[in-house]
Each structure stands twice: as structure tokens, then as C-alpha cells.
Design brief:
The structure holds three protein chains of three kinds. Chain A has helices at residues 2-23, 249-278; strands at 28-36, 42-52, 54-57, 62-69, 72-80, 86-90, 104-111, 120-138, 141-151, 157-159, 164-170, 175-182, 188-192, 205-214, 218-226. By secondary structure, chain A is α+β, with helices and mostly antiparallel strands. Chain A folds into two domains: 24-128, Immunoglobulin-like; 129-226, Immunoglobulin-like (Sandwich), CATH 2.60.40.2470. Chain C is built from 17 helices and no strands. The chains are: A alpha+beta, B alpha+beta, C mainly alpha.
């Protein structure tokens, strides 16, 4: 009987803990971003984070991607997050995706939850935008022109007005922002080309124009290359020097002269020794 | 009498098993709770450890393989690049993330530092400041001049690297470098076989006993368009890295035109009069983000004492 | 070969010493071997466990080994400069000491570079020096210079010993290998006029060329330090400074060796007061010259206030750091030899040897003080908490190898003395006392006068 009491107490405590656990599951959050690259592929990048003191990425968890069609949820795909908690779904040219009459697409990304983590979901409504980048030169001024358009519910193109476009030069490790302008009523913006930026050996610069983290349009990127930048001198390999593989010529000559002088005398002395032997 | 005893023992047995079962379930429940929040995938893969044994490692812990150039190609620079670094002394607070990231990246012992953070005080009246110092990858490198076998060499992309398969360990380069940038492997680092094919002067790992190592500006990362880990690890964006030919430097979040940054913020070379023409520029500690005393937080008490003694306390 | 009475006497005197070994000799050799074995053990430990067993760390990367290396190469000047110059000037009293001087050169030129090998991290890659050598590097200059110098010294010693080798060849030795060896080495020398001419020509050439070679060797060694951007090293007078210090220490070791051999081989009739006096005067002059260079170097650093130079100077002048060593090496080590030899009352064989010992020690300490304090004061502040990184302390491994080097030096000397008479046998007894020297000088003066008279007479005849 004593044992029964102890055991039931223990079970009650663990069960109680379990019950209490169920009540304090961890909170999770889903973040969704829409990307449209220069090659026109559209991606949804979902990040799942869970609160452990601070929010940390939640990897190896299943995320469900839906598209909202009126009130019905259409499953697009389910993807496991990687170690950084990210899952990427390509949504370009997906027949399951429908636009509502206003021209918006509503995505829902859901984490179904588990015994330890609460469920979480994020709804995002975006409009499909597009950026076209072109270069033009009037007299001697070189400029970049960007046209922002939106594809509506009826697949008609309309310009996007008053949207911020950021202009970058592509570097090896990052993008350098050199201009920031708003589009006019026709969705067009022009900026001067940064002719003082160095390009490669032929002066080619890659210009990137972005609508960045816009609530309506997400992030849209357009790229273009042209050789209007400053050409750089190709880096030449140094030939001879103190810090190179080959020594400066004067050093080589000095060394040869010095060594030959000494060793010539040695050989002469050896010759003397041979003569001694012969003059027996 | 015997029958009664049998009944007794049966009851005892029943209670004992019941106890055990419930205890097991309860215990399992406790253990299960502590396991719920682990982020390891549970999927493992078999790897070859550095000392030649087969090890089971969780997939979550495996970093992507590095792809440096090998052999003769490691002596040729990445074409048409001139790597440069700018360090903003106004932002440094001795967080030492650059030091620990570099040590992790290059498999260094905790006492060996390829990027060091000094507490400098130029004279008795001037303010102390924290001074991160990687290898300067000088354009007139005194270390390259004196190497008898050409184990350390200068590339066209500005980097000075060490080929530890050629180094004879004479340490002349260590005496020639005026900036104390080089570290010697005094004992066997125990990092794998001597003829490891994975060795490259661009990664500087695995280390070899009796040879010299130093900061290499992580060229294998640059080949993939990634910044060195000291740059990305800094919580205050102190270190900027980039290509001088492109005129763009970045600390991972902000990008500037190198020429404008140096011009606007009065960038300078440390001890420029030595004539070594470093490829690392410093931005003077003006309008600082942090008081230098905040830098003692990342040190142990005895380390903090040592540093405090080494400066003149007028502040 | 024909020998005169003196030479025969000398030969009969030296041969028993060469062929046998006394009991006390065995004990001494035994002690030397113990030290050498200690060094071998230390070497094995260092090879197996890596250089972590030494006291060298990332700041002081060159320690006791490099100090020993410079010390031994410095000593080698005994043969090169002393015997080279003495031979070139046909100084009368040179014969008994030339061989000892040359042997000192050869042995120290073998042991010195051995210390560099000890300091190298990867001995298994020594061939890289030949495969990938860069002639812009002072170390390659050093390798070329020292190997050339060693070969030159061996040739010089050989030439200076041919006469003795010929005499030894003719002596009826019991051991066959000795007979064979001397026959091979003597290259049929039998003292005829032609052979003497060739020999003299060879000797003159070698003694002439070994002098600039020796100066170059030590200058190259100095440039290994002088070419770096380090306080205390980046000095323009480093090359001449090292050369002077080397001749100073070389003379000191020569005097010590002469004293040792004179005492233990009973060579009082060959190595006399003359040698000690003249060498002592050379030591004094060089000591004064060395003191002058030291004074100039430190005064200039101290007067100009460059921070990086001052930091090293403060270390040298700090009683808690290196002051007493600096006092001993730069002040005492110069003043004592100069004073003792300058004042005739104090000048005798034993006192000259005693100050030579002090001078040699002082110069070893000086080599240590050149290397270590500079390496302990890098340009960037030493903010390292590990004590072995701040202050260099040589470990037992380094000391064992240092003593083994000295023991090896003595041991190799001992071996040499078993193959060759320590003092030149054929011409050994020339110039061993002042009376003889005076006689020779008078003879030379007389000869010159006679020549002059003859010339005047023939001129008169021509006029007529």
C-alpha cells in the first residue's frame, strides 16, 4: 500500500506536468516574403521562428503553403524548413494560384503546430508587379529608365505610380545604393547613370533596380548590364622585384659575379694542388 | 500456509510490476518533455573525422564544404580584384566576435588569434581605443621579401598567403613582420594527415606543425561572393571588406564607395611611415558609438585588470 | 720529405700524443660525451614533441639557438681573419698558432649552422632551400656564404698542413689506416722547390680570399637582422659591428685554446709569451674598437627619442630586466680586457687568458641581448597574458643543446688533435722567442740594406 501511494503521487506529478506543458506550448511565428527576380521567377520565402527566450529559427518543421481562392484554401505545397528555418516555394506560373477581382493574390503559410509548439500562420496579399529596366542616352547624358507595371485580375498591365525604386550597382559582395526615386503617374522613373563608378576592364557595370519590401508588391528586382562605367586597368603580374619570385636582375648579376670570383680561386688552388702532386 | 504465501507473493509481484510500469511511463514522460524542443533533425550522416575514424554526425551540424583553389592556382590571384579592408574604430567595443569567428573558421586553438584586438593609447593624454588588427596584406610586404623558399607570396589580387607545404619553419617572416600578424604552430595541431589533399593556402587548414599561419582574408569565401567571417560576425559592423577596383566596401549590411568612405571619414594607414603599404585602412575613433571601458565586458576580470594597467588613466 | 732537427724533434714529441690517450684524457672525453649525449636526448625530445618544448613563442621566435649560431660563426673569425691576415703579412710568430686557429674556424662553422637547423620548424623540408631558394632573402645569402666559407677554410687548413702531412706520411706508424690516410692526403709532397712554390701560391691566394669572405659571411649574418623593421636591429652599422665583435670573440677563443693546449699538451716551447702578448694586444685593440661601436650604437639610439628604439633601451637599462647582463657584456667585457692588457704590469699569460674568457662570455651574452630584448618589444603592444609569451625563458632542452654544442666543439677539437699535430711540426719552432724574432728582423733589414747597396753600386757603374 505504501508503494501504491508513492507511485500514484509520482504519476500525478508527471501527468500534472504534462498537462501543464500542454497549456504552455511555445509560440511560433511565420514570416513570409515575396520575391520576383530579374528572370521573372517568383518565390515565396517563409521563415519559421519559435520563441526560446528570444526568437530563434525553427528548422526541420513542415510548412504548408496555400493560396486563397475566395474562401477556399488550395494547397500549393508542403515544404520542410532548413536549419535557418526557411522554406522557399516557387509560385510563378502555378495554375493553382488565382487572383481575386481586385487583382490581389492571397497566400497563407501555416505551421500546423505540435505538442510542444503552438500552430502559427501568416496571410499575405500581394499584387503582381513588374519592373523593366532600360538604358538610354540623350546627347551626352547617360540615364537609366525603369518602368513599374502591375498585372491585374484581367491580366491587363497598368503602371504603378508613386512607388519607391532603389538603384544599385552590383559589387562582388554586396549591392551599392546610388539613387532612390519615386515613379511618376506613368510608373516611370529616370536616374543619371553613375559614370564615375568603376566597372570591369571594359567598363561594364551591372545595375540593379528594386522595389524593396513593399507591402503591396513584395520585392521586385530588375537587372541590366552596360559598359558605361569607368574601365579599370587589368591587374598585371609583377615580373621581377624584391617581393616577387624572381629577383631583380642586378641582384642576380651581383651574386653570380661574387660567387664566381670566390669559386674560381678555389678551383685555381685545387689546380695548384694537382700541380704539387705532379711535381713529385 | 503455502497457499497463503503464494497469494502473497503473487500480489507482491503484481504491485512491483505495476510500480515499475507506471514509473517507466512517468519517467519516459519526463524525458520526452525535455527532448521536445531540440532542434536536431534526428537524421544523421556518416563522415570521416580528421583523425580518420567514421563518425555519425547529425546533418544539422555539418557545414557546407569549402572550395578553394589548390596548388599552383592558389598562387594566382582572383582576376582583376584588389581586396581592401576598412576598419571603423569609432564603432569597435571589443565584442571579439571577429576573433572567435576567425578561430572557428580556421580551426584555431582559443589562444591563437589571427585577428587581434588591441587596446591602443597613442600617448598619455589621448583617449584609448580598441584596435582590431588582421594581417594587413601589405603591397610591399616585408615578410614576402625575406622568405628563403617563397612559401609566403603576394598575389595579384593583393592577398599575401602562406603555402604550408613549402614553409621550412625558419620564422624569418615572423621577425620581419612589424605588425605581429603571424602565428607559429609550435606543436602538432592534430588536424589530420600531412599530405591532406584538402589543404590549400586559401583556407590555411589543416594546419601543419612547424609552419607559420596568418589571416588570409578568406579568399575561398571571396570566390563564392561571400564576406570573411570576421566581417559578418561583428555585431556593430566595424569591419568593411571589398574590392578596391570596384570601389565598393561592405560590412554585410551597409555598402559604401571605398573612395568616398576614406575621404569623408579621413581613413589612414596604421604606421604608414614603415612603407609597407597596407591594404587595411582605419577610420579614426571620432564620434564613438561606445566608451572604450565597455570593451572590458567581454574579458575575464584578470584580463580586464591587465588591460587597465597598460593604459594611463586620465579618463 | 726531409726534416731538419727541430722538426724531427717536434714530430717525435707529438706523435705519442696523437696515437694514444692518457687516463685523464679519457675522463675528460667521457665528460664531454656525457654532455653530447644530453644534447642528443634533448634533440630527440624536440623533434618528437615539436618546438613547444623550447621557450620560444610567437614573439621571441629566435632564442638561444640563434644566439649560439651567431656566437659560433663569430668565433670562426679566429681562423679566417687572424691566421689569414698573419699569413698574408708573413708575420714571424704565426706558425704555432695557425693550425689551432684554422681548426677553430672549421669546427665552429660546422656547429654554428647546426643551431639554425635546430631552430627550423621543418627539417624534413631542408631541400626546399635548393629547389625554391629566393636570392632576395638574406637567409639564402647566409647559406651560400657559410657553405663557401666552410669549404674555403677546409682548403686553407689543408694547404697549411700539407708539410706536416708529408712528414707524418714518412713516419713509421703502426696503424695501417694512418699510413694510408697520410699518404692520400700528402699528395706526394716532398718539399722540393717547385712544390714549395705552388704551395706558397695556394696559401697566399686562400689567405687573401678568406679575409673578404669572412667579412661577407658575418655581414650577411648581420643583415638578417639589419634588414628587418625592428627596433635595435634596423641599424646601419650592424654589419661592421658584427664583424668587429666576431674578430674580438675569435681572438678570445684562440687565446683560450692556446692556453688549454699549452697546458695539457705541454707545448711551452712552442706557444710562448710572444703569442699571448701579441694576440693580447690584438684583443685589446679589437676590444676598444668593439667598445667604440657599442658606445656609438647605444648613444645614437638613446639621444634620438624614437619610441620604438627607446623601449628596447629601457629594457636593457632596467635593473629588473637586462641591466646587469648589459653591464657585464658591454661595459665590463670591454673594459677589463682593455685595461688588463694595456697595463704591462698586469700582462701575463694567465691574466690574458682570464680576460679572454670574460670577453668570450661577454660576447655570448651580447648576442643574447641583441636578439631577445628586441623580439620582446614588438611595435604593437604585447597584450598577451601568457607569461611565456611576454618574457622569454630558455628551457632545459635549449640549455642541454647549448652545452652539447660547446662539448661537441671541444670533442671535435680533441679528435682533430689525434689526426694532426696541434702545432705545425715542420715550421713550428720558428719565432718562439724574442731573440729569434729580433734576429730574423735584423736579417731582413740586413738583406734589404745589401740589396740597396748593390743597386747603388750598379747605378754608379752605369754612370761611368
Amino acid at each position: 500500500m505504501k508503494y501504491m501511494l508513492i507511485i500514484s503521487l509520482a504519476t500525478a506529478i508527471t501527468a500534472g506536468k504534462g498537462l501543464a506543458q500542454k497549456a504552455v506550448r511555445k509560440t511560433a511565428r511565420v514570416q513570409v516574403e515575396y520575391f520576383k527576380g530579374p528572370d521573372k521567377t517568383e518565390n515565396l520565402v517563409a521563415t519559421l521562428i519559435v520563441k526560446e527566450k528570444r526568437y530563434v529559427p525553427f528548422g526541420e518543421a513542415m510548412l504548408y503553403f496555400y493560396c486563397l481562392n475566395d474562401t477556399a484554401r488550395i494547397l500549393l505545397d508542403k515544404i520542410k524548413t532548413n536549419d535557418a528555418g526557411k522554406a522557399v516555394l516557387t509560385v510563378s506560373n502555378n495554375p493553382k494560384i488565382t487572383k481575386d477581382p481586385e487583382g490581389k493574390i492571397t497566400f497563407i503559410v501555416e505551421y500546423k503546430g505540435s505538442s510542444a509548439v503552438k500552430a502559427a500562420q501568416r496571410k499575405m496579399a500581394i499584387r503582381q508587379g513588374d519592373l523593366e529596366l532600360s538604358f538610354f542616352q540623350k546627347d551626352s547624358t547617360k540615364s537609366i529608365e525603369v518602368s513599374a507595371t502591375e498585372t491585374g485580375a484581367d491580366n491587363q498591365r497598368t503602371p504603378i505610380a508613386k512607388v519607391n525604386i532603389l538603384f544599385y550597382v552590383q559589387g562582388t559582395f554586396s549591392l551599392y545604393n546610388f539613387a532612390k526615386e519615386k515613379t511618376d503617374e506613368n510608373g516611370i522613373v529616370q536616374v543619371a547613370f553613375p559614370v564615375d563608378m568603376p566597372g570591369d576592364t571594359t567598363g561594364v557595370l551591372t545595375i540593379v533596380a528594386k522595389i524593396e519590401e513593399n507591402r503591396t508588391y513584395g520585392t521586385i528586382e530588375a537587372k541590366g548590364e552596360i559598359n558605361w562605367g569607368k574601365p579599370i586597368q587589368p591587374v598585371k603580374e609583377k615580373k621581377r622585384g624584391l617581393g616577387d619570385t624572381d629577383a631583380p636582375l642586378w641582384m642576380v648579376y651581383t651574386l653570380i659575379v661574387l660567387l664566381s670570383a670566390v669559386w674560381f680561386h678555389y678551383l685555381y688552388v685545387v689546380y695548384m694542388m694537382i700541380k704539387i702532386k705532379l711535381a713529385r | 500456509m503455502e497457499k497463503g504465501k503464494k497469494k502473497q507473493s503473487r500480489r507482491k509481484f503484481f504491485f512491483k510490476t505495476a510500480t515499475a510500469a507506471i514509473g517507466a511511463i512517468g519517467g519516459a514522460g519526463l524525458i520526452a518533455q525535455s527532448c521536445e524542443t531540440k532542434k536536431e533533425s534526428g537524421e544523421t550522416m556518416t563522415l570521416l573525422s580528421p583523425d580518420g575514424k567514421l563518425v555519425e554526425v547529425d546533418k544539422a551540424n555539418v557545414a557546407p564544404a569549402r572550395m578553394p583553389a589548390h596548388g599552383k592556382n592558389a598562387r594566382k590571384g582572383i582576376p582583376n580584384k584588389k581586396f581592401v579592408m576598412v576598419i571603423d574604430l569609432a564603432r569597435c567595443r571589443n565584442a571579439r566576435k571577429c576573433v572567435s569567428n576567425c578561430q572557428k573558421m580556421h580551426q584555431l586553438e582559443p589562444e591563437d588569434e589571427w585577428i587581434k584586438v588591441f587596446l591602443m593609447q597613442d600617448s598619455d593624454d589621448t583617449a584609448p581605443y580598441w584596435f582590431p588588427k588582421p594581417c594587413f596584406h601589405c603591397n610591399q610586404p616585408p615578410c614576402v621579401k625575406v622568405c628563403p623558399v617563397g612559401a609566403t607570396y603576394k598575389r595579384t589580387d593583393g592577398l599575401v598567403l602562406v603555402d604550408n607545404e613549402r614553409c621550412i619553419g625558419c620564422k624569418f617572416c615572423m621577425t620581419a613582420c612589424p605588425y605581429s600578424s603571424r602565428v607559429f604552430q609550435w606543436k602538432d595541431p592534430g588536424q589530420g594527415k600531412e599530405d591532406d589533399e584538402n589543404y590549400s593556402p586559401e583556407t590555411s587548414v589543416p594546419h601543419k606543425v612547424g609552419t607559420v599561419g596568418k589571416c588570409d582574408f578568406c579568399p575561398d569565401m571571396a570566390r563564392m561572393g561571400k564576406l570573411p567571417t570576421c566581417v559578418t560576425g561583428c555585431p556593430n559592423g566595424v569591419i568593411f571588406f571589398g574590392d578596391k577596383n570596384e570601389d565598393i566596401v561592405t560590412n554585410g549590411t551597409e555598402s559604401f564607395r571605398f573612395s568616398e568612405l576614406i575621404y569623408d571619414r579621413a581613413g589612414y594607414h596604421f604606421m604608414a611611415e614603415l612603407g609597407t603599404e597596407p591594404n587595411v585602412y582605419y577610420l579614426p575613433p571620432v564620434d564613438r558609438l561606445f566608451d572604450y571601458k565597455k570593451g572590458f565586458k567581454t574579458l575575464t576580470p584578470e584580463q580586464a585588470e591587465f588591460y587597465k594597467k597598460s593604459i594611463v588613466h586620465k579618463h | 720529405m726531409e726534416l731538419d732537427a727541430k722538426a724531427t724533434r717536434a714530430l717525435n714529441y707529438f706523435i705519442p700524443q696523437m696515437v694514444s690517450i692518457s687516463k685523464s684524457g679519457m675522463v675528460q672525453v667521457g665528460i664531454l660525451l656525457v654532455f653530447i649525449l644530453g644534447g642528443l636526448y634533448a634533440l630527440v625530445v624536440q623533434i618528437v614533441e615539436g618546438h613547444i618544448v623550447t621557450g620560444m613563442r610567437d614573439n621571441v621566435v629566435w632564442g638561444l639557438y640563434i644566439a649560439n649560431f651567431i656566437f659560433f660563426i663569430g668565433i670562426s673569425y679566429a681562423g679566417a681573419l687572424i691566421s689569414g691576415i698573419l699569413h698574408l703579412l708573413r708575420v714571424e710568430w704565426r706558425h704555432p698558432i695557425i693550425r689551432i686557429a684554422e681548426i677553430i674556424t672549421i669546427i665552429s662553422t660546422i656547429i654554428g649552422p647546426a643551431y639554425i637547423l635546430l631552430c627550423m620548424g621543418r627539417l624534413d623540408r631542408l631541400h626546399h632551400l635548393a629547389l625554391y631558394g629566393r636570392i632576395q632573402s638574406p637567409i639564402i645569402w647566409d647559406v651560400l656564404a657559410i657553405s663557401t666559407y666552410l669549404i674555403g677554410s677546409i682548403i686553407f687548413l689543408y694547404l697549411a698542413s700539407i708539410r706536416d702531412l708529408a712528414a707524418l706520411r714518412d713516419y713509421p706508424f703502426k696503424q695501417k689506416w694512418r699510413k694510408k690516410l697520410y699518404r692520400f692526403l700528402a699528395i706526394s709532397f716532398n718539399g722540393n722547390a717547385k712544390q714549395n712554390r705552388f704551395l706558397e701560391r695556394g696559401l697566399t691566394i686562400m689567405s687573401a680570399i678568406i679575409i673578404p669572405l669572412a667579412v661577407l659571411v658575418h655581414s650577411v649574418l648581420a643583415w638578417i637582422f639589419g634588414m628587418t623593421l625592428r627596433p635595435g636591429w634596423h641599424s646601419t652599422i650592424f654589419a661592421p659591428y658584427f664583424v668587429v665583435a666576431a674578430v674580438f670573440s675569435g681572438t678570445g677563443v684562440l687565446i683560450i685554446a692556446l692556453w688549454v693546449f699549452r697546458k695539457y699538451y705541454h707545448l711551452e716551447s712552442y706557444i710562448t709569451k710572444i703569442h699571448f702578448n701579441y694576440l693580447g694586444i690584438i684583443l685589446m685593440i679589437l676590444g676598444a674598437l668593439y667598445g667604440y661601436f657599442t658606445f656609438s650604437e647605444y648613444l645614437t639610439s638613446w639621444y634620438g627619442s624614437e619610441t620604438w628604439d627607446m623601449e628596447v633601451l629601457y629594457k636593457l637599462f632596467d635593473p629588473h630586466e637586462y641591466w646587469w647582463w648589459f653591464f657585464f657584456s658591454a661595459i665590463l667585457g670591454v673594459a677589463l680586457p682593455v685595461l688588463v692588457i694595456l697595463i704591462p704590469k698586469f700582462r701575463n699569460i694567465n691574466s690574458i687568458t682570464a680576460v679572454s674568457v670574460i670577453a668570450v662570455f661577454a660576447l655570448w651574452v651580447k648576442r643574447y641581448l641583441i636578439i631577445i630584448p628586441t623580439l620582446e618589444t614588438p611595435l604593437l603592444p604585447l597584450q598577451d597574458l601568457r607569461p611565456e609569451y611576454i618574457h622569454y625563458t630558455p628551457t632545459i632542452i635549449e640549455w642541454l643543446l647549448t652545452f652539447a654544442g660547446v662539448a661537441l666543439f671541444c670533442f671535435l677539437f680533441f679528435l682533430f688533435s689525434k689526426f694532426l699535430p696541434i702545432v705545425s711540426v715542420v715550421k713550428g719552432e720558428e719565432g718562439t722567442n724574442y731573440a729569434e724574432l729580433r734576429k730574423k728582423v735584423m736579417q731582413r733589414v740586413l738583406k734589404r740594406k745589401i740589396k740597396e747597396e748593390k743597386r747603388k753600386a750598379s747605378q754608379k757603374l752605369q754612370h761611368i
